[in-house]
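Extended Data, record Enoyl-CoA hydratase/isomerase family protein
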Amino acid sequence: MPWSASRSRRTITLRQFLLACDMRFASRENAILGQPEVGIGTPPGAGAIQHLTRLLGRGRALEAVLTSSDFDADLAERYGWINRAVPDAELDEFVAGIAARVSRFPRDALIAAKSAINAISLPTPAEVRADAALFQQLVRGEGVRQRTSELFQQGFQTRGATELDLGQALGDLKAVD
């Protein structure tokens, strides 16, 4: 399943969905990727750590997760977070072309190839559940509540500077024990 991001500069709710997709394409001009959870006070859940580590490698996954920084499409492409950064005006046609091409190939060959690649590269359900359990444990903490409250006061999850520059906003929050 290919995924593309073009119109909005940030869509927080799509982070884990993006990581679970088979291929990812993003608008060079508009896409911003990031994992803000550690900046709020919890590790990413829902398999994000598993997927990011496999996609980016250990060092880059640590950079993305531990810094809670924003990554533009060009850097995300260089890191392997997305397959390709494409000019926004060409993105929909590009992704549609890939889907059309793949749809013409023999189904059994597609299934066999994808199954083999998945067996090598995807986390187990137990690994994803472990990430989710740790996230659920930490997200209930007072530090997370404090940091989330401060972000909402700054305009978190509303159209504006905090949402468009979340990585910077997270870096500017006060330290919490």
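Summary. The longest strand covers residues 23-27.
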